[in-house]
């Protein structure tokens, strides 16, 4: 399945593609099966129609959101970044439409997102079973990363206590700044001495007039 880049951009911006979002309580156990059960029927129908799609399941783990999305696109960027697509193609190019898996969570990694290419939409149906196995395997690894990330987050507050002690160092700078005004007092004394000299000169002129 190929599409002209400009036509792809138009469909996304006009929101004429198929999209839906499902909310799901935290799966117990936290595995891929329950999430994919929500997405599979909608994705299969959309691919049969060779349509552009974006279907998501929104759940949470350890109090943090976890969003799993299966989405068609011509570049490995979520559709929300559609304005960046023309940086990769000419608008009249014909581009292959692929299916991508996006897992978004503050627990998964530093970028809060993991992206996996599943394959082209055109070839998906030919080996649908193998493709769904691939999706399940990739999602399993992503969910494991979320679990590991939640454990690392719990340990962070202990590590953050050490840098806080270093903030006491800037107090030394305040002590050195206090020495600066001492130079200004010396300058004022010199100015006073100059005025005294001028007064002495005036007295000498008065003595000459007396002669």
Q: Could you explain how this protein is built, in words?
A:
This protein has 211 residues and is an alpha+beta fold. 49% of the residues lie in helices and 22% in strands. It is built from six helices and seven strands, in the order E-H-E-H-E-E-E-E-E-H-H-H-H. The protein has a five-stranded mixed β-sheet. Helix 2 crosses helix 4. The longest helix has 37 residues, at 128-164.
Properties at a glance:
disordered C terminus, 49% helix, 211 residues, 7 strands, alpha+beta, five-stranded mixed sheet, single chain, 22% strand
In short:
This protein is an alpha+beta fold and 211 residues long. It has six helices and seven strands; from the N terminus they run βαβαβββββαααα. The radius of gyration is 36 Å and the shape is globular.
